[in-house]
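As a next step, we paired sequence with structure tokens, yielding the entry below.
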Amino acid sequence: MHRGASIITHIYYGFDLKNMFLRLDPSGSLQDLNVAELSFYINFLTPKGMDIELRVMPQQRRVSATLFRDEKGERKEISPLHSVAANEIIELAVPFDLIGIKANEEIHLFITVEREGSEVEKWPARGFIQMTAPTDDFEAMMWQV
């Protein structure tokens, strides 16, 4: 089956000791007024039952990111995320403590894009993105001189 033109072209991710970082590169301009019809979701498999909803509002020159948790089948808003930006790309920092992740715990996630409530894209197409929250000695283990 052929996959049509993508809304997201690239996804980059990483972390420091306190945050997970995500970068979404769109195929088109985030200043296009039709972008307001889109919702970007960071869907967590681990930690279970959490998602982040990102909305870009080009007319207001605003972007929002909100963390939600599934509680007894109901989606409950937990917290807005303040380290988010969208101009040519979308960038987001998610504090590990906000999503309940401790050092050396795994994170599994996938990203979906919805247009007016209907899913139009999923990344990765199969499976999920996996990373492990770093321990305090992470940098010492990764760097050698």
